[in-house]
């Protein structure tokens, strides 16, 4: 019954607190992530930006409970994480939709594999499809959808059970620039209504700044957080991020880090 209540129409804020305390990861002698402490507030949107190999995915996999830290602890709502997070939605760069199921059936699969009653999930999926402009796509197969639509279906799938935590690893990486702007806006709108706690990994400085309440800037060798930037700007943020001087100032601060670290050359 609890599961049914959880996916009833959206009302309450659903995010949880995630405490990452001195969490580090070594693969043999190689230090992929230096011990790192991050306290993520319930419903906070935290972006993580950094070059390839700085440990972003490693951090996300540990928060998902899919990889064991070599050191430190992760707590969710004060409880030590011991195994895979369950109340979570995950979206990757690759949409990972099943080609032989329609868009709707891909989303409903979240309920099927958990043995949940499907009707309330279908209702919620229909609402999400409507909000994401996917209503006409519901009965199409992934191969019949554009890249942006597939990624939106993947977003609907991640959100359909109204998870407390949304983990996204470069979810818009494969999209063209304009579609990327649209899906970013869609994600922000959905997050503003439902407020899951989000860990959003990206290579895009503008996207990190445009979406985050806070941006963690990472650097490689060893992977580490080199700056933490609070983005206290109103939402929804502008569609064209470059036109907002305050956002551009944050982006510049991040590019300066990458220039200093030799990640980009000027
Ligand atoms: N299972 C593993 N065994 C050994 N090394 C690994 C393993 N997983 C990741 N690494 C290494 O740890 C470092 C961090 O990897 P990670 O995938 O977290 O980086 P990333 O910042 O997400 O990179 P990208 O942006 O390219 O996805 C890399 O040098 C990677 O090669």
Automatic annotation (TrEMBL):
Q: Which PROSITE patterns match?
A: ABC_TRANSPORTER_1, ABC_TRANSPORTER_2
One Pfam family it belongs to: ABC_tran
Q: Tell me if Lyase is a UniProt keyword of this record.
A: no
Question: Taking every annotated instance into account, which residue ranges of this chain make up the domain ABC transporter?
Answer: 18-245
GO MF annotation terms: ATP binding; ATP hydrolysis activity
Name the InterPro entries for this protein.
Answer: AAA+_ATPase, ABC_transporter-like_ATP-bd, ABC_transporter-like_CS, ABC_transporter_ATP-bind, P-loop_NTPase
The protein's UniProt keywords, in alphabetical order, are: ATP-binding, Nucleotide-binding, Transport
Which family is it part of? Belongs to the ABC transporter superfamily.
Protein name according to UniProt = NitT/TauT family transport system ATP-binding protein
Organism of provenance? Neorhizobium alkalisoli
Taxon lineage: Bacteria, Pseudomonadati, Pseudomonadota, Alphaproteobacteria, Hyphomicrobiales
